[in-house]
Design brief:
This protein is α+β, with helices and mostly antiparallel strands. It has 21 helices and 6 strands. Helix content is 64%, strand content 7%. It is elongated. About 18% of the residues have low confidence.
């Protein structure tokens, strides 16, 4: 079973995004949703057709790299779909993509989408152009995470046939002149032959990835341990969903998760983060058992063996990870282990110290939000809970929570989002028992960048939440 790109895309394009797109287009939400439901499988089907030849797959591979299609488009999707220059630029970019992929067949596809959804041809063209970068973004994200070459990319796309065939609008094959998806896959098999890389069995890829990550985790700080857990959980979920050869990747993957959980526990992280690892591990076992049937029993044996192996690896990781942990003792005697150089370690050390100056800014490391919203991600809890402990130990300390965004999208919307996110952090701390009088919140939108917005790395730095000491 191959990775289901259509489901992944639908998971990113929720009702809020459709609402914004419908407002931009001047169409009803129901018709816009209907159009998007036809557009996504159509674009994937068109990409399949292109990738059935080596030259076509190579062109897609190059387009993903040169166009920066790595999934970062989903980091501020609501801003991109809500109108203004960002949306206009997205439509323009998507138009270029469609022209490169489908040439003079774009018009037929536009008419087909318009016919099945009931939106106008102009709206159909715009929405199709808006969706094209999203589909390439998802494809590029998988290419990067799985380390695919052009052959692997073609194989991933050919594997989408069963996922999209029931969702394609009637007349899709005629509009693009490709006949049926079976014909596309058949052409790909003839073109590529034995050179078509298999990506439905993730065994070798996952083993390599987990082995390398475990090795790095042994000498890493606890903050890296958090990244290991997050990455392992993603790989685990994707791998479990795709099925494949289970025993070749399950052991190192579960071992990696066990080490990640151990590192988190040593960092003084909240139990929810560790519980997430444990639940992910259980989910992997459940999913692989369902995917492989008779392997369920073998998986149980593997899990049993992991416990002992994880202990040995964790011990080695412990010896090396100690160098990256700093202990801060608070008033009242409670000691918290922090990663050296982390937000928690720097903030707590400053509060405990004798320096009484105010205005000191501390940027959170792990306070994040669901895409395009002010809903705190569960991974934020550990850092905020430790901040709560510090504030409770030092009741005279007051802070201001500041929200910041990059410059992508509408400036007014960014300002509003940054304020909502700062308010969300404030509310979390109040819910944990910190008096509201000690906390203020302020959103600055994109007006206070700390890096250039012309790279993904720079935009990532600018999307941040800060804590500023206002009284000590």
């Amino acid at each position: 079973m191959s990775l289901n790109l259509l489901d992944l895309l639908k998971g990113q394009i929720g009702s809020q995004v459709i609402k914004q797109a419908s407002g931009f287009l001047g169409e009803s939400e129901s018709k816009t949703q209907s159009a998007m439901d036809s557009i996504l499988p159509s674009l994937l089907g068109g990409l399949m057709s292109n990738a059935s030849s080596k030259s076509g797959a190579g062109a897609i591979f190059d387009m993903l790299g040169s166009g920066g299609h790595d999934g970062s488009v989903f980091s501020n999707l609501s801003g991109l779909m809500g109108g203004g220059d960002a949306t206009t630029n997205m439509v323009k970019s998507g138009g270029g993509i469609l022209s490169s992929l489908f040439g003079d067949k774009v018009g037929g596809l536009v008419s087909l989408i318009s016919k099945v959804s009931g939106i106008g041809n102009s709206s159909s063209s715009s929405l199709l152009s808006m969706a094209a970068p999203l589909v390439l973004g998802m494809l590029g994200k998988q290419k990067k995470s799985m380390g695919l070459d052009a052959g692997g990319l073609a194989s991933l796309l050919m594997g989408q046939k069963n996922h999209i065939k029931d969702f394609l609008p009637a007349g899709f094959g005629d509009a693009l002149g490709i006949g049926s998806l079976d014909n596309v896959v058949g052409s790909a098999e003839k073109e590529w032959g034995g050179a078509l890389t298999s990506v439905t069995d993730l065994g070798k890829k996952v083993v390599g990835t987990t082995s390398e990550t475990v090795s790095k985790a042994a000498g890493a700080t606890v903050n890296t341990g958090k990244k290991v857990v997050s990455g392992a959980a993603d790989v685990a979920t994707d791998a479990a969903n795709t099925g494949g050869s289970i025993l070749r990747w399950l052991l190192p993957l579960l071992l990696l998760l066990a080490v990640g959980a151990w590192l988190l526990s040593k960092a003084g992280c909240d139990n929810s983060a560790i519980d997430k690892v444990n639940s992910t591990t259980s989910g992997v076992i459940d999913k692989t058992a369902g995917a492989a049937g008779s392997v369920a029993g073998a998986a149980g044996d593997v899990v049993g063996g992991v416990a002992g192996a994880a202990g040995d690896v964790a011990k080695g990781a412990a010896d090396l990870a100690k160098e990256g942990i700093g202990k801060v003792t608070l008033a009242g005697g409670e000691a918290i282990d922090f990663v050296k150089g982390s937000f928690g370690e720097k903030f707590a050390s400053y509060v405990v110290g004798s320096d009484k100056s105010v205005g000191k800014v501390f940027t959170f490391d792990n306070v994040t939000f669901q895409t395009g919203s002010a809903t705190l991600a569960a991974t934020s809890n550990g850092e905020l809970d430790n901040l709560t402990k510090v504030l409770k130990a030092y009741p005279n300390v007051h802070i201001r929570l500041e929200g910041h965004t990059d410059n992508t999208g509408n400036a007014a919307n960014n300002l509003k989002l940054s304020q909502s996110r700062a308010d969300a952090v404030k509310q979390y701390l109040m819910n944990k028992g910190i008096a509201g009088a000690r906390l203020t919140s302020k959103g600055f939108g994109s007006t206070k960048p700390v890096a250039k917005n012309d790279t993904d790395a720079g935009r990532q730095q600018n999307r941040r939440t800060d804590a500023v000491i206002t009284k000590k």
